[in-house]
Amino acid sequence: MFPELGRFALILALYFSLVQALSPVWGYYKKNSVYFKLSKMAVIGQFIFLSFAMLSLIICFINNDLTVLYVREHSHDLLPLIYKMGAAWGGHEGSLLLWCLILSAWTLAFSIFSSLFHPDQTELQEKILMVLGIISFGFILFLFATSNPFQRDFPDNVIIGNDLTPILQDPGLIFHPPMLYFGYVGFAIGFAFAIAALIEGKLDKEWAAMCRPWIILPWAFLSLGIVLGSWWAYRELGWGGWWFWDPVENASLLPWLSATALIHTLIVSEKRSVFKGWTILLAIVTFALSLIGTFLVRSGVLVSVHTFASDPTRGIFLLSYLTIIIGGAFLLFAARIKYFYQAPHFKLFSRETFLLVNSIVLLSAVATIVIGTLYPIILDALNAGKISVGEPYFNTVFIPIMLPLLFLMGLAPHMNWGQQSFSDILKKLNFTFFFSLILGFFSPLLLGFEFHLLTGLGLFFGIWIILATIQYAYQIFRTQHKIPLQNWSMIVAHLGIAIFALGITINKSYSTEKQIKIAPQESVQIAGYHILFQNLATSKGPNYKSIQADFLINGTRTLTAEQRLYTAHQEFLSKPGISTNIWRDIYIALGNSISDDSWSVRLYYKPFVRWIWFGGIMLLIGGFMSLLNYLIKRRVVKHEIH
Amino acid sequence: MKFIKYFFPFILFLALMVLLLRGLSLHPSEVPSPFINKPAPSFQLPSLFDRNKMTSNQDFIGHVTLLNVWATWCVVCAEEHSVLSEIAKNSNVVLIGLNYKDSQAEAIKWLKKRGNPYHIIGVDQTGNSAIDWGVYGTPETFLIDKKGYIRYKQIGPISPQTWEQKLKPMVEKLQKEE
Prior knowledge:
The complex is a heterodimer of chains A (642) and B (178).
Chain A: H1 2-30, H2 34-62, H3 69-74, H4 81-87, H5 92-117, H6 122-146, H7 171-200, H8 205-236, H9 247-272, H10 276-299, H11 312-336, H12 351-381, H13 391-411, H14 422-446, H15 453-480, H16 485-510, E1 512-518, E2 523-526, E3 529-540, E4 544-553, E5 557-566, E6 571-575, E7 577-580, E8 584-593, E9 599-607, H17 609-641
Antiparallel strand pairs in A: 1-9, 2-3, 3-4, 4-5, 5-6, 7-8, 8-9
Helix pairs in contact in A: 1-2, 1-6, 2-4, 2-5, 2-6, 4-7, 5-6, 5-7, 6-7, 6-11, 7-8, 7-10, 8-9, 8-17, 9-10, 9-12, 10-11, 12-13, 13-15, 14-15, 15-16, 16-17
Chain B: H1 8-24, E1 38-39, E2 44-46, E3 54-56, E4 65-70, H2 75-90, E5 94-100, H3 104-114, E6 120-124, H4 128-132, E7 140-144, E8 149-155, H5 160-176
Parallel strand pairs in B: 4-5, 5-6
Antiparallel strand pairs in B: 1-8, 2-3, 4-7, 7-8
């Protein structure tokens, strides 16, 4: 019964999205605000029915209803309950349903909070709800037409489920896709803001202030989603790496980069009334990249380690959808952007210029990743042969683009709006500059580590950002006797990037790995650690068999590396044993048995690897601080009105 | 005409859409090889561990061969490598490697770390031989019979299932042929 109810709920949600999109237009012609209220009601209705559809799907999984095709393909009797629930979005259909549900949740949040905090901005809100309604309608239609998760199928003989792909049976699966989607999908609101501004022909301070939290919050979620994904790959894929430049990873990085640029131009638009065209363009591009990411992942155009099932009609539908929504937005942009031109009132050496350079650099980074990811298709489409683009390309092209940005990051907060004297900034920062330069380049030598130019450069820039940012915080504290929350959010986010950069630099430069053949009671040395292979045990999990190897590190701590055989898929999965502290990870992956008692084992020593993810989490904290600041400020403003 | 530049994002976007539309009709993982049941393209490449030694079509004669195209920069190859090691251990099919567009030092390091399942490895630094073979990515594996004819082409990694269900029965059949 639940599959039918879920399907029915989807139909209702589809109609509600249509009402949400059309009633503001109707209200505009009728000059009646009742229709705006109707649109808001439709938002609520849509959210309720999509939640119900998702719930029905989860119930199908919990009941292990194998007559539902989607459940049969992704579940198994013996799959643990928590993964049964997670499996609801482990495949194509379910993850699209999640996409729609999250869009509807964002829309609901927007409709509640914007009328609470900006009750006078109804015209803007109407247009935003209309745009979001159109986006939602398209996606629910897509779900309905090509990817129905509730499709029934009654086979003749007894059936068992296909089981969830073993690699996805990890706590990471429960949180990683929803987080990514909260990020991706959230950018729809920023996109709707941009369209509304284009329709109205104006972008003022109020617009920018109102828009900001709806960019920063998805951006913070996306940061967390990327961090979770990278952490998941690190633990599950067993290769000891944390980023693979896989198309699916690139798809999540692209909107993140352009949203980062957007956050910065938005500040300039709010404070200095310039770069309005840039802000609008970036808002469109960010959402476009989210959609293109969805397309790339879902259509099977690219082959990746994530490989999902592909179906050409889905690709065609998504592509038409993209062309209508984003192509329409770009046309509108071309037609209306002349109203937003503002003569620049700043000098070349100023904070404005730096923030402009920031967005140009980030967009160039986006372009290089897009080219690298699509290059195989471009060549193929031109019949010029088939190739694959791998890590060497991205490392060669991406790193030199991003390095100067790290340098600018330390500098930009110290720049004045409008104009900055060069000698002032030199005086202010020369000590910090030379101190971090020396520390960055000489500390590896002094501590007796191998030295590479890129290591020195990475350390220098990381330390430079930290010191320059702390200096900036100290200056604010000296003049204002406190540090406002808005500044805190920037400080924390920038320090997060610095920690991230230091983590990558040290990890890349000083990681070591060994692949060895080892038998129980033999031992091995890696990076000064003595590792003893203690014993081997076998056990049985709910849907897999496993072999566990215990390793004793320095005679004190035990690590267990595991090799699982998932019975339904007949697929092996290596679960590495990882010992963690803030300075390093020791990572042991059990390979194949070589002879009766000896095994192939891979050992990694990974210094500072946790810093990479910790930096990402600081971005999230920075984002939430900025949001908190917005909430507090808005409350203050409201009190003043009363 | 002054504002024509504002159409630039739209034009760029449209070009991208056309490209993606074209991309949809391409099947990256389903390209049939025109070489099936034909003699393997002739090639002669220096061997990875001994540059004076040559790998060529002669190495196919008299036994069933799996020619595996790999590279150290290919993430999936690392995953496939453990399966190949199993095959090398448990089956008497001859594994020949084709190291594709790679650094030789890296390749040697990679194999020293992971073990070498290959009988011999040809180095194709320019990728020219790979073009003759119709290789477009890594990993790819060709099944070659005792007379040096290509009988099957596997695109993408060999998983334990594809080996057990597809390749192994074919290898066993070919081994019975004269």
